[in-house]
Specification:
Helices cover about 70% and strands about 0% of the residues. The protein is built from six helices and no strands. Helix 3 runs antiparallel to helix 4. The longest helix has about 40 residues. The chain is elongated and about 80 Å long. The model has no long low-confidence stretch (mean pLDDT about 90). Bound molecules: 6-O-phosphono-beta-D-glucopyranose. 6-O-phosphono-beta-D-glucopyranose (BG6) binds next to helix 6.
């Protein structure tokens, strides 16, 4: 497990150092995808616009959270922010410094991340719904164009 945690810490450091310029964008994506928005914003909104997408959204929240809970019970993983303080693999107080954010200040087991799982589910439902909508509109436009072209004998 130490190997995994150590590589996780390296990835976090890489993201926090080399992608600092994208902080606002990544933070925005993370906040929009926050699963807590499902119940208060996305489900009521999507249910009005499209019942199928709204229902998918609520299922994603329930099943995704349930899976996350089960995986957390099984793995019971450390969070990188406290693992770096507790592990003995960094000699002489040379543990790396990881920046904390409000969403990372959570208690309880850290892997798999509920935020990462939930956000990817939210984004998956929203992106597939948007793509489905765009494709069906494009299909309609092509059909209309085809009919017009056929009608004019082109
Ligand atoms: O398991 P993680 O990654 O700490 O994320 C859990 C948290 O993720 C957040 O997105 C949710 O809003 C919180 O309600 C939840 O506790």
């Amino acid at each position: 497990m130490d190997f995994l945690h150590r590589n996780g810490v390296l990835i976090i450091q890489h993201l926090q150092k080399d992608y600092r310029a994208y902080y606002s964008f990544l933070n925005f994506m993370s906040n929009v995808g926050d699963p807590r928005n499902i119940f208060s914003i996305y489900f009521p909104l999507w249910f009005q616009l499209n019942q199928a997408v709204g229902t998918k959204m609520i299922w994603v929240a329930v099943v995704g959270d349930w899976f996350n809970l089960i995986f957390k019970w099984i793995l019971f993983g450390h969070r990188p922010y406290w693992w770096v303080q507790e592990t003995q693999i960094y000699p002489n107080h040379s543990s790396p410094c990881l920046e904390q954010f409000p969403t990372t200040c959570e208690t309880g087991p850290g892997s798999p991340s509920g935020h990462a799982m939930g956000s990817s589910c939210v984004w998956y439902v929203m992106v597939t719904a948007a793509l489905g909508h765009t494709i069906s509109r494009m299909d309609k436009s092509f059909t209309t164009l085809h009919r017009l072209a056929c009608g004019r004998g082109l």
